[in-house]
Amino acid sequence: xxxxxxxxxxxxxxxxxxxxxxxxxxxxxxxxxxxxxxxxxxxxxxxxxxxxxxxxxxxxxxxxxxxxxxxxxxxxxx
Length: 78
Prior knowledge:
- The protein has one helix and three strands, in the order βββα.
- The chain has one helix at 53-70; strands at 13-20, 27-34, 40-48.
- Strand 2 (27-34) and strand 3 form a beta hairpin.
- The longest helix is centred in the last third of the chain and has 18 residues, at 53-70.
- The chain is elongated and about 40 Å long.
C-alpha cells in the first residue's frame, strides 16, 4: 500500500500527476504542495497540448518546480 510520506524538516513535498484522455487530444497536469505536517501550501493545474503520457508527467514536474519557486519555498523532493 502506498502512503504519503512527509518531507524533511524545512522542505515541502511536491506531488504531481499528468493525464491524457482516450477520446481526443486533451492532456493536463497538476500537483499539490504540502508542508512536513501535511498542511496544504498550494496547488496548480494546467491544460496541455497534445502530448505523450511521459511528457504530461514531465510538464507536471516543471510546473510544480516553477510553482514552488514562485512562492519562495525551498523544495526539490517529488
